[in-house]
Design a protein that fits this description.
Chain B: It is found in: Cell membrane. Chain B: Keywords: Cell membrane, Membrane, Transmembrane, Transmembrane helix, Transport. The complex is a heterodimer. Chain A is an alpha/beta fold. Chain A has helices at about 50-55, 80-85, 105-110, 120-130, 145-160, 175-195, 205-210, 230-235, 240-250, 250-265, 285-295, 325-335; strands at about 5-20, 20-35, 40, 65-70, 70-75, 90-95, 165-170, 195-200, 215-220, 220-230, 270-280, 300-310, 310-320, 340-345. A 6-stranded mixed β-sheet of chain A has the order 6-7-8-3-9-10. In chain A, strands 2-1-4-5 form a 4-stranded antiparallel β-sheet. Chain A has a 4-stranded antiparallel β-sheet with strand order 12-13-11-14, with helices on both faces. Chain B is mainly alpha-helical. Chain B is about 80% helix and about 0% strand. Chain B has helices at about 1-5, 15-50, 60-75, 75-85, 85-90, 100-120, 125-135, 140-150, 150-180, 180-190, 195-225. The relative contact order of chain B is 0.15. Classes of the chains: A alpha/beta, B mainly alpha.
Chain lengths: ~350, ~230
């Protein structure tokens, strides 16, 4: 993977004026996507993420800022040049946006109309349908397909012009979890096999967790946190990011249950509820045993979870540690030295992390 | 045949008049449909692409078209017939007769059709238009390959509606000198108290309307793949 920037958004502002009201959908956002990235942009609805990525192919003209795609200044293009540039930027949508009046094959072949001769087009369409696994549906109409199949058709259509970039605007948000996974798998495969750069907008951190290598978190028109996936997941700084991650890893639900139980646990002075988080190699260390051997600290595991992100394990443990106060402190120090993140949890504090 | 003679004593003696009148009605309808169809379609498409948020957004053009359509649609057709008689005379040389009736018919039905087309095309999912833009389609491709293609079932339904209302208008134009079945029904049947002639003219118009409706429905169903 080279580090060549394929998309460069700089200081993007998008302001809407509607009936005397001014809405700043995107505020001074800069974003760089490198070739081969699967870049996730997460945020709740209304955060401005869709508006931001629609700037990439100028479906949305920014109020201010600059847009560079594959070294081309997108905002300086005339309509004809823009259309040519757009052929290199595929896009898929939450509601698929297929043409109901055309067969699946015609939907996929639509972008090639007027660009390729009929039989060449046919060949290409067959290849694209094969790529997304829908060859036998070629003569069906969209209304006959399931949501997941429709999105595969939309992906095939988006790939018809051999784009270098694929923008996925909440493409899995209308799909069930299983279908979502299969679509994400397909995107990952296309990323690997075709070298396709993917910009994935979603409100589900699970989707990002599955395939992205980088992620940006958006809130109220701004990117509040960004970085590579493992860093963001292991050291989220902003509360919103933590919230997204805890939902994705289901730690929130676990904590809620544990906190409800905590009263019955009746923790004494010598017991502490802590969350241990570790990345990469430290996952493999026999931590719990080590803590007992060295400090006589007993750890009772209430919840455990290991995520594999970009081939890097990310572990989360919620444990009750029991031991002498000074031994506990030493144990925590040992953990920290081993690169393990410790959060002390207070069950009486109803606020979930 | 005897039954026909019994209930339509006057009409049966006017077979050639009825044939001619039916021909005139169909002629006025067909020519107007073609001319008003092209004009109405163009204005309807114009309204859709220049409307706020349209693919060729243009406030000035949109407002002009919008006001023009509203203006023409506000004038009652009977009055329009009289008002534009001088214009008709300039275009076809006379203000009386079947061909002359086509001018007010076009002006009366084109704006109606334009609105129908606008409504039909407004039903085309904006997301689909956006998807076409995202693969690099230009305005012409989007109009012909997306709007008109996707909107076709609704366009056919609107066209049927417009055709039927057009037949209504031809009857009115006929009554004041345009010929056709309306002329027969009013100037012969009504004025001479030959009610059976009026009824027969009405029945023929009903048959024409039903035929248009039937064919339209069949066509619309054939091109509609939404379900």
């Amino acid at each position: 993977m080279t580090n060549e920037a394929i998309i460069q958004l700089k200081d993007i502002d998008v302001t809407f004026h509607n009936k005397g009201q001014t809405v700043e959908a995107v505020k001074k956002v800069s974003l760089t996507v490198e070739r081969g990235d699967i870049y996730g942009v997460v945020g709740y609805s209304g955060a401005g993420k869709s508006t931001l990525v629609r700037v990439i192919n100028r479906l949305q003209r920014p109020t201010a800022g600059s847009v560079e795609v594959s070294g081309q200044d997108i905002l300086a293009l005339n309509p004809r040049e823009l259309r040519t540039a757009r052929t290199k930027i595929g896009m898929i949508f939450q509601h698929f946006n297929l043409m109901a009046s055309r067969t699946i094959a015609d939907n996929v072949g639509y972008p090639l109309k007027g660009r390729l001769a009929r039989d060449e087009r046919k060949k290409k369409v067959a290849h694209l349908l094969d790529l997304v696994g829908l060859s036998e549906k070629a003569e069906d109409y969209p209304a006959q397909l399931s949501g997941g199949q429709k999105q595969r058709v939309a992906i095939a259509r988006a790939l018809a012009n051999d784009p270098e970039i694929l923008i996925s605007d909440e493409a899995t948000s209308a799909l069930d979890p299983k279908t979502t996974s299969s679509i994400l798998e397909l995107l990952k495969r296309l990323n690997k096999e075709l070298g396709l750069t993917v910009v994935l907008i979603t409100h589900e951190m699970e989707a990002v967790k599955e395939i992205c290598n980088k992620v940006a978190v958006m809130e109220a028109g701004e990117i509040i946190e960004r970085g590579d996936l493992v860093t963001i997941f292991s050291r989220p700084e902003k509360p919103l990011t933590q919230d997204f991650i805890n939902t994705a890893t289901q730690i929130n639900q676990a904590l809620e249950k544990i906190f409800r139980q905590a009263a019955t646990l009746n923790l004494s002075e010598s017991q502490q509820l802590v969350q241990l988080q570790y990345v990469g190699a430290s996952t493999d260390a026999p931590l719990i045993t080590e803590l007992y051997k060295r400090y006589g600290v007993v750890s009772n595991i209430l919840y455990g979870n290991v995520e594999i992100l970009q081939d890097t394990p990310l572990g989360n443990l919620i444990v009750v540690m029991s031991g002498e106060p000074d031994k506990l402190a030493a144990a925590w120090q040992y953990c920290q030295d081993a690169g393990i993140n410790i959060t002390h949890l207070n069950p009486n504090d109803s606020e979930v992390a | 045949m005897n039954l026909l003679a019994k209930y339509f004593p006057n009409a049966v003696t006017m077979k050639s008049d009825f044939l001619q009148a039916t021909g005139e009605t169909l002629y006025m309808t067909a020519i107007t449909a073609i001319v008003a169809g092209i004009i109405g379609m163009a204005i309807g498409i114009g309204l859709i692409v220049t409307q706020p948020g349209g693919i060729l957004e243009n406030r000035v053009v949109y407002n002009i078209l919008d006001k023009l359509v509203n203006l023409c649609r506000s004038i009652p057709f009977v009055i329009l017939l009289a008002v534009i008689a001088p214009l008709t005379r300039i275009i076809v040389g006379t203000a009386i007769g079947t061909t002359a009736a086509i001018v007010p018919l076009v002006i009366g039905s084109a704006p109606f059709y334009a609105r129908q087309i606008q409504n039909a095309l407004a039903e085309v999912d904006h997301g689909v238009v956006e998807a076409a833009e995202s693969v690099g389609s230009g305005p012409i491709a989007i109009i012909f390959r997306v709007y008109l293609k996707e909107g076709l079932p609704d366009i056919i339904r609107s066209s049927v509606l417009t055709l039927i209302s057009l037949i209504d208008l031809t009857a009115m134009a006929g009554a004041i000198g345009g010929g056709g079945l309306g002329n027969l029904a009013i100037n012969v049947g009504y004025s001479r108290f030959e009610t059976d002639v009026t009824v027969m003219a009405m029945l023929i118009i009903l048959v024409i309307v039903f035929a248009i409706q039937l064919i339209g429905d069949l066509l619309a169903r054939r091109v509609d793949h939404t379900a």
